[in-house]
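Holo prediction — N-carbamimidoyl-L-glutamic acid.
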Amino acid sequence: MSAFWSTTALLPSGWAKNVRFKVADGLIASIETDVPAGSGDEIHQITLPGMANVHSHAFQRGMAGLAEHRGGNSNDNFWSWREVMYRFLDRLTPDDMGAIAAMAYAEMLETGYTHVGEFHYLHNDAAGRAYDDPAELAARIVAAAQATGIGLTLLPVFYAHSNFGGEAPNHGQRRFIKGVDGFAHLLDACRSLLSNGDQLGIAPHSLRAVTPDELSALIAMHPQGPIHIHAAEQQKEVHDSLAFSGKRPVEWLLDAAALDDRWCLIHATHMTDAETDALAASGAVAGLCPITEANLGDGIFPALRFLEAGGRIGIGTDSNVLIDPAQELRGLEYSQRLLHQARNVLASDTHPSVARRLFEETIAGGAQAMGIAPGLAVGHAADFVTLNSGHPALYGRHGDQLLDGWIFAARNSCIDTVWKRGRQLVSRGLHKDSAAVTARYLEVVEGIMAE
Ligand code: NGQ
Ligand code: ZN
């Protein structure tokens, strides 16, 4: 494909009509508006930029739906879910993980994500021993991204402790553990795996898993590029942080880690008003995962205040219990409606459409958190998502109404085609290798469930 033409397209400047993108080497070489299609152009109706999924643990797709029944007692919570997740890892092989990641990434592409930030913490074998190649499992992530075609920001995770104060890791965490030197080797190995357009960041897992000294050492190891960390997802973490340092997790990070636009704080659910305002002012992104946060019973992010303070947000699929950016954005707005007993809470004066506001915010914040360029502009990757104008939720809709229809009113996906760096990966909502990826996934899941 050398040119891509769309009746309407969402550009950084807003909705444009009769838009022609020339594409060269996977990048947008030029954009013309109000022009007819050329002969041989790829022709579509409604074109959006691809979205970034800032936070995924791909392997967790394989246990989706398996933790939705009561365990031995009636007080299931985040921590009991985590035990189920740890048990799922008892036997998972590199091949299993690669097949599950490919399934998750194909689903991401099918729902409109063209880039994923993989917060990758599975490093050791099932006995907790390092593989001969420290990047054995990271390589499976990279291979799954390359096979499916999704863009990747690989975020190798440093994980060394079970709680604040450098507590020894527990048995369930044996596959995650690396020392500072081991992590340096892993980071080097990861760097050599990446291909064109992929990015490398670092991910100290959480203030529970990393001591302050280790955090400083990690940052020194990676002077540029994204830094992601889980923070303040659960009240227990806030209490443990206060007991350890006298500060809440986000407060501690703001004071000790000099947060700036390289940082992405995953969840940041439990913040005081002062933390909310200070995080917004720092330029860091809050990586929100509304579906997982609801699924795990985390709490409600203070989105209204954070956005009003100029805070930046991205969205992530985290546990991958369900993969769909439209449902993430809908869940984010609905959490605020329920909390504030009001409607259209996250709209703004410049964007009265809720979906448009959230789409724009997460395109910008998501790209920042991934270390890539946002939106459909010259020199940026030709990452197109087209909507199916024949979907009843979009009938007769124009401009921002299309986004509101997609995000609030469609029972099934409105996605028609998806393109990564000018290459078509999805048509009629299905990944080009869907049959093979799904067949391999079926085999792996049947094997796991039979054990
Ligand atoms: C994770 N997931 O690393 O997969 C975590 C659970 C933890 C979320 N926080 C483990 N949603 O935080 O200790
Ligand atoms: Zn996570």
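READOUT: The pocket of zinc ion (ligand 2) is lined by residues 55, 57, 119, 230, 266, 318 (CB under 6 Å).
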